[in-house]
Amino acid sequence: LNIETGLRQALDNQEFRVVYQPQVDVETGAITAMEALIRWQHPEAGEISPGEFIPVAEQTGLIIPIGDWLLHTACEEMLRWPGAEHLRLAVNLSPLQLNQRDFVQRVGEICGNTGFPLSRLDLEITENLLMRDVDSVVEKLRTLSRLGVTVAIDDFGTGYSSLSYLQRLPIHTLKIDQSFIQAIREGQDEGTLVETIIAMAQGLDLRVVAEGVETERQLNYLRRLKCGYMQGYYFSRPINGRDAVNLLGSWP
Ligand code: G
Ligand code: G
Ligand code: MN
Ligand code: NA
Q1: Which residue among 2, 88, 98, 158 is least packed, with the fewest CB closer than 10 Å?
Q2: Where are the domains of the chain?
């Protein structure tokens, strides 16, 4: 299988799908957002994971049309969900997308065309942005922030962002990498890095989302620390739009 060749045809052949994973308010238990995640069903090779094909999409520039497709599709789909009028939509961005000169315009157009309010959009960027031009990315994120978009640092704690870097970027949310959450186990849940990150985020006035929550122990721990939001298999795996509608309808 040649991933690059396959990727070049995948959009035309409608081989991508979007799945969604809920984010839950720790205090109220309500679902407040859905993270959109891309899936690729190759006609011969079957499902190929984003971990495999996203790097190739980035190297080839195909991440630009693929990213546009994902945002457009997720916006359209979520707007059709009953009772989801207040849900936020979180999407993952590659550095290459942010480095596009017309990035702000593209996001504005996709939301404008679909009717999805910018004020319900969360952009997830990783710490290792490898941004060629930090100033211009900061400027773009500022512009989007003024329009109501929020920005999250994804996989927080695994990259090399310094505190000064964090302060420079107009961000609203830290998503604690799942490896730190999974380290919360019987007898090992004191003085964890999670505790430190949450305290730091509170000091910086940032929202915190804990990723990869799988157990009740982890949930209770996050509640004690007054972590704001959480996401993980404990609540739901990433699911398709139809299942997401059912989940929302039956959520307590
Ligand atoms: O969904 P899964 O856990 O398999 O995702 C694996 C990785 O792929 C994660 O780091 C996730 O952020 C990334 N990913 C999933 N969907 C997208 C997408 O639409 N765009 C980008 N850039 N990355 C994505
Ligand atoms: O890098 P990013 O955070 O966008 O990646 C999200 C990925 O994490 C998705 O591929 C999703 O399938 C995966 N994921 C979400 N919740 C859990 C969880 O509770 N446990 C594990 N192991 N993976 C998870
Ligand atoms: Mn993410
Ligand atoms: Na993450």
Answers
A1: 2
A2: 3-244
pLDDT tens column, 104-122:
999 999 999 999 999 999 9
Nearest-CA residue for ligand 2 atom 14 is 212
Quote the ligand 4 centre to 173 CA distance (angstroms): 12
Atom 16, ligand 2: which residue's CA is nearest?
Answer: 232
Q: Is the CB of 82 under 6 A from ligand 1?
A: no
Report the CATH fold assignment for 3-244: TIM Barrel (3.20.20)
Centre of ligand 1 to C-alpha 71, Å, is: 13
ipTM entry: 0.97
Confidence bin at 131 (pLDDT 50/70/90)? low
